[in-house]
């Protein structure tokens, strides 16, 4: 078991802001999806591979608490970890945090170099936090028990849950 968070970096794009110059609230849902997708890839369970195995993981519930606003060009860290886990359902916890430019490196073209990875405690100014709850289903959208349908996926999840 691990209490470690997976960290993914991004920079706020202009297209994600509203007329007030702040990130539109709906974009946090996309950020959480990026965090979840990259968490799974990091731990060897890519969505592409899961779907080729006939596994789907639709969202049953989404909960977000907004704390502060992000703005265009802010550096953001998305933290993701498993919050709850069973053979049928999976809940991820997320935190989107603003981090300073000094925490990131850039190349000669000023392109953000992303060094994602595991971390014990989220860093930066909390912007939003939340959870998504998912259910394992097959291609026919029938619920499945992941430990029976794909024991190798279950083992990876069990190894990296909180």
CATH architecture grouping: Roll
Instruction: Write down the secondary-structure element order.
Output: EHHEEEEEEEHH
Whole-number mean pLDDT: 90
Strand order of the largest sheet: 2-8-4-3-1-7
Per the principal axes of the C-alpha atoms, what is the gross shape?
A: elongated
| SS content category | alpha+beta
Indicate the percent of residues in helices: 10-25%
Distance linking N and C termini? 6 Å
The level 1 CATH classification is Alpha Beta
Stated plainly, the CATH topology is called Thiol Ester Dehydrase, Chain A
CATH level 4 superfamily: Hotdog Thioesterase
Question: What is the gyration radius calculated from CA atoms?
Answer: 17 Å
In short:
By secondary structure, the protein is α+β, with helices and mostly antiparallel strands. Helices cover 22% and strands 34% of the residues. Residues 107-112 have low confidence and may be disordered.
């Amino acid at each position: 078991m691990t209490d470690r968070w997976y960290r993914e970096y991004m920079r706020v794009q202009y297209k994600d802001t509203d007329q007030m110059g702040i990130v539109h609230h709906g974009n946090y849902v996309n950020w959480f999806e990026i965090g979840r997708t990259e968490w799974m890839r990091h731990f060897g369970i890519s969505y592409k591979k899961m779907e080729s195995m006939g596994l789907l993981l639709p969202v049953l519930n989404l909960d977000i608490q907004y704390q502060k606003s992000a703005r265009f060009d802010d550096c953001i860290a998305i933290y993701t970890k498993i919050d709850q886990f069973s053979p049928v359902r999976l809940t991820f916890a997320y935190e989107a945090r603003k981090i300073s430019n000094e925490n990131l490196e850039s190349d000669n073209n000023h392109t953000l170099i992303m060094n994602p990875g595991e971390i014990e405690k989220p860093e930066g100014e909390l912007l939003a936090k939340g959870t998504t709850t998912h259910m394992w289903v097959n291609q026919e959208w029938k619920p499945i028990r992941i430990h029976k349908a794909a024991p190798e996926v279950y083992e990876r999840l069990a190894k990296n849950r909180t």
